[in-house]
Amino acid sequence: MVGDLRQRAEVKVPPGFRFLPYQDTAKLLVMAGNRSSGRELGLIQHTEDKWWVVFEFDDVGYVKDDEKDKLNADKLLTTIKKGTEEGNKYRAEQGVPPMTILGWHVKPNYNDETKNLEWSILAESEGKKFVNYNVRLLGRKGVTEITLVDDLVSVEASLMDFRQLIKDFSYKTGESYAEFKKGDQIAKYGLGALVVGGAAAVAYKVGLLGTLALFFKKAWKLVILGVIAVVAFFKRLIVGKPAPPPGQE
Questions:
Q1: What is the pLDDT of residue 63?
Q2: N or C terminus of the chain with fewer C-beta within 10 Å?
Q3: Which domains does the chain have, with CATH numbers?
Q4: Shortest CA distance to 134 belongs to which of 23, 236, 11, 224?
Q5: Which pLDDT tens digit goes with each residue over 59-104?
Q6: What span, in angstroms and rounded, lies between the C-alpha atoms of 16 and 49?
């Protein structure tokens, strides 16, 4: 089976996995307590181990990879921690437990051949540790954001299948990084800013860390919301049990 990622890309769906198109992906994320970004491409879920992968696309334009040898993991982690602190203020208003960033599970690294940027954050909420594993696949018109959601105990066993999914991802004709043409939109930031994430990337690029507070007050991603509640939701979805509100697991 091949999952169509909104006519922009596609991914092979191996046996033992299920694929949801972007409409259903958005609905499930909202049901699990997340906001829909409107950028969802699709979702793949392991039917037995229950870990899952979200695909989104950010049409920021062509991201130059000239920072590939200059990724400062310490600086990036400091920025993410500051953003998470601001995100905790918002979560408190929503009755969602706070989250603490413990450090890197895998430091940011870039594969020049495949144009993949990869990193993983170790976090904790309510005494439970979990991993938010991220891959960014550079394209001609933007970046495909791929997030693996899994708990700390099982993530290492899941990574082999996850990385195979990444290998089986491909942009459609006209969308790949190698097909860049003069006159295409150029992104306003580079690889390091992608690690910080989305709308906060420009603030990282120009060093305005204070503006991250505004960003995290208005919006958040899976790593900001607290993945444990979301994982529990999908596990209940498979076995047909109702899910309590986030924070009441």
A1: 95
A2: N
A3: 2-239 (3.40.1000.10)
A4: 224
A5: 999 999 999 998 999 988 888 888 778 777 767 876 777 888 899 9
A6: 10
Structure tokens at 205: 């690029």
Q: Please spell the DSSP secondary structure of 193-229, one letter per residue.
A: HHHH-GGGHHHHHHT-GGGHHHHHHH---HHHH-HHH
According to DSSP, residue 245 is labeled: P
CB atoms within 10 A of CB 173: 7
Residue 207: per-residue pLDDT: 38
Identify the pLDDT of residue 51.
Answer: 80
Half-sphere exposure in the Cβ direction for 54 (13 Å, CA): 29
Residue ranges in the chain modelled with pLDDT below 50? 198-249
Rounded (10°) CA dihedral 67, 225, 167, 109? 30
Length of the chain: 249
Q: Report the alpha-carbon distance of residue 129 to residue 153 in Å, rounded.
A: 9
User: 58: which strand partners?
Assistant: 143
CA 210 centroid distance within chain = 23
- Helical residues (DSSP H) of 94-206, grouped into ranges: 155-167, 191-196, 201-206
Backbone conformation region of residue 165, classed left if phi is above 0, alpha if psi is from -120 to 50, else beta: alpha
